Amino acid sequence: MPRPGSAWAAALLLLVLALGPRPGGCSEITFELPDNAKQCFYEDITQGTKCTLEFQVITGGHYDVDCRLEDPDGVVLYKEMKKQYDSFTFTASRNGTYKFCFSNEFSTFTHKTVYFDFQVGEDPPLFPSENRVSALTQMESACVSIHEALKSVIDYQTHFRLREAQGRSRAEDLNTRVAYWSIGEAIILLVVSIGQVFLLKSFFSDKRTTTTRVGS
Amino acid sequence: MAGVWARRLRAAMWHRALLLALAGFGFQGLYFHIGETEKRCFIEEIPDETMVIGNYRTQLWDKQTETFLPSTPGLGMHVEVKDPDGKVVLSRQYGSEGRFTFTSHTPGDHQICLHSNSTRMTIFAGGKLRVHLDIQVGEHTNNYPEIAAKDKLTELQLRARQLLDQVEQIQKEQNYQRYREERFRMTSESTNQRVLWWSIAQTVILILTGIWQMRHLKSFFEAKKLV
């Protein structure tokens, strides 16, 4: 007699496996870091996994941020202050939760937008049963090398897009600043010129001090 | 009667094992801590017609056991996605675990904001919430084993399909880059124009006020019989 409970549980397990955990993988996140703030991210890594952390500041202030990477014991693996862009590769020496933090505490009023890319291990293989006995055919290995090349093209495109976003943000800043400062200067110019004339006139129009002296 | 209870117990153990498996597997990914009323926003700069899939899972800090509970019913997250023009594309409440999907129709910065919307405020009680988040964009959203099963593709066909998807994404990104470069060029030209015209205007103002000053002062001093 079939038990509906176990069928449901089996279906759920299949769903979990389908949604699934991916061995290794890459997290790319762009987030906003307010002024005087620190944001930390954590990841559980198994021993011996090669990981890479790459970050870049996209907008805000002097385009720099503090970054700090700690292992599960609290040992600081990477610490840099006021960096615009950096890439750090390490191999996990033990199992546990690795933590990395971005800090904007040195800045008083600029929000920063930070992009980071945390690659843990290798990307999952296309086929689950990748422990193949037979070697890849020539076509398949050509496909693999094209895939790797395209991945690096996409990676370069991402970095180019970020640099371009940075340049564009500076250009737009410059544009608004030019507008405001030009208007401001024109107004100051007018006010100062007219003010000078009236001030000068007031020196000579003073009735109390007279240049003529009463002769005796 | 005992048989029914035994069956129920076994089912309960199965479910518990499944929950533990879910908690253990987790979304192999990043997590961060969020406060009760805190809103965290993430930005995805994407070309148009690109699919974005986000998976999240939340865990609540339990003060008694000093650990994070595997899952908390009644704890929801509100997900809001805004397109580059500020229009809301997706604004939905999900449970403590969820998956949200949207496709961009305009290229640019899309903002994905998450904040917790707990139905029972007491469960939070000044604790923190751990959110596992995983956002996949473009061709990373494709689930290749599923595509292979659905379209019955051989290995080589599947690899070719993956390469095609990658190349399509590169094409879309290049298109988006052309659009961005155009905007950048317009901004630079606008700055150029502004600098030019405002410099001319300021020089003209300077000369005119200089002339006015001299004339005004001359007539003033002539009136005062000092000149």
Structure commentary:
Chain A: One of its GO terms (biological process) is protein transport. Chain A: Residues 38-120 form the GOLD domain. Chain A: This is Transmembrane emp24 domain-containing protein 7. The complex is a heterodimer of chains A (216) and B (227). Chain A has helices spanning 4-19, 138-204; strands at 25-33, 38-45, 50-59, 65-70, 76-83, 85-91, 96-103, 112-120. By secondary structure, chain A is of the alpha+beta class. In chain A, the strands form two sheets. In chain A, strands 1-8-3-6 form a four-stranded antiparallel beta sheet. The longest helix of chain A is centred in the last third of the chain and has 67 residues, at 138-204. The relative contact order of chain A is 0.14. Chain B has 227 residues and is an alpha+beta fold. Chain B folds into two domains: 31-141, Sandwich (Jelly Rolls), CATH 2.60.120.380; 143-226. In chain B, a hairpin with a 5-residue loop joins strand 5 and strand 6 (88-94). Chain B is elongated and about 125 Å long. The chains are: A alpha+beta (216), B alpha+beta (227). At the A-B interface, helix 1, strand 1, strand 2, strand 8 and helix 2 of A face helix 1, strand 1, strand 2, strand 9 and helix 2 of B.
